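User: Okay, second chain of the day. Same drill as before: sequence in, structure tokens out.
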Amino acid sequence: MERKNILQIKQEDGSWKHNLAYLGLLLAVSLATVIYLADTKAIFAFSDWSFHASRLEELYLNLKSGSFLTFIAARTFHNTGVASFLFYPYLFLYPWAFLRFIFSPVNAFYGWYGLVTFATAAIAYFSMKEYSKNSLAAFLFSLAYTFAPYRLYLGGAVFGEYLAVTFLPLVFLGIYEVLWGNRHKWYLLAIGGALIAYSHILSVFLTLEFAVVIFIIKLITSRGISQGRGKALGLSIIVCLLLVLPVIAPFFTDFIGQKLVSANPHITQTIDLGPLLLSSFSAQKGWKLSFLLILTIFVAWALLKSGRDWIIYGLGLFSCILASSFFPWKLLAGTPFEMVQLTVRYLSYAALFLTIIFAQETSALLGQAGEKSRRALICGFTCFMVIFTFSSLAAYRDILVSETIEDMPKTSANSTQPTPFKLLRNKNYHNQFNYKILFGEFDYMPKVARTSVKKRHSLLRHKAYLNGKTLNLHPLIKSNQITYQVKSKKAAAIDLPVIAYKHTTVSVNGQKRSFRRGSRGTVVVKLDRGQNTITAGYQPSPLFYLSIVISILTWLVLISWLIKCRLS
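Assistant: Same drill. Structure tokens below.
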């Protein structure tokens, strides 16, 4: 690139007008994408949709009744009191829940979808801008990253991972600043890591894998790490831990040593490397990269010059291999690495690293063009990405407007039938909550609750056991509380269809009672003779509330310090 063009681009990069223009384009593309789907006035319930929609519904109903915090599923998940909130972050579901107070269920979802999409685009833009010091590269990166086929797939139902992808650019910018760039910006790593932890715990584990690999590369290439950078790294880790204390505290107070199980910790599905690469030339969203990134893999190596770019390129290739069956996953059987479950999760990281290379090299080529030509090419690429995104979503939109796919039918309130792949509209949106959640209904339950179909179905059908008899109970629900009315001919113990945790609370006729965990991992409590009102709820450990206070104070101190540094 000629020196004149480099100076010209750097002058443009310093203008807030260029940032505003690029963000305006990103907002326009985000809105176009949302409108393209929202215009159907339908949602397709597939994959993890029923799990997250049920969590959202619980949160919304609790907010509606005046309870801000949710710990257990009392209204959804078949009223089993499972701790799908205690151990799975839900902070970023609040905007969706608040939108439910304003819009219909379908429009509230698409409003939230649009917010997350633009947030991803904006964070990607500013992260790449900070890294490359090039607004054009940042814009190209943001478009290609935000509207990558795999991320579009996640946006249909896999919301934990979908949210985590929003903050990946910020985390890896923080890693770069601490290890190679301006170590005084260590706070980027702390904030990015915290935001991922607020989104998806498994993504924290995956991100740590890459962070360790990058740290090892730093040690090898730089023959160690300076004391200043080591302190910056340690400070970012400490602050990040303080910020995420409310997320990790329940695992110490209620999970460890309690014989609870989460998702199946095994590799459940992989994809061959060949089909993974070839399918990327198809426009549809799914388990694939975009064809732009495949071209980057085969072409960019000839353009790379700096060692830093070669590292990023190598990490992108390594991510593709990890995402496929080409990597010898069988050798890691029985290790914590199997927690990934679906190896295609690594496609988010492949997209991140390869898009950096794509944006840098493409912006360098565009930088050689004149100003008018460059603007025309930018507009052309923006239009191309809109068309590409619409093409990626076309097959999914066809499902939303299909006349052959049925709307979600009604079912009984204690159905054991899994949520079917059907269409949801405002008129039938609530039908989904009577079905068994397709993936995740029994996550975070005691292991004994999942040992047989009979036990699992007894929970879904609200079956209690008293005096050798089976009772079908009807719960009375409040936020984080489940109440039953039971009449007993004599004093006896009842096994309720409510999961028992370390900090579960039980009262009988208004009096607090001790309880034990039964053979289903449920609450077993003694009843008095006659009519009994039994309430099972959850009261967090004082450590949880302390962790919230510490986290909020850490955020306030960090933000105040950043403002002070900015003004000084």
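The chain has 19 helices and 14 strands.

User: Thanks, on to the next one.
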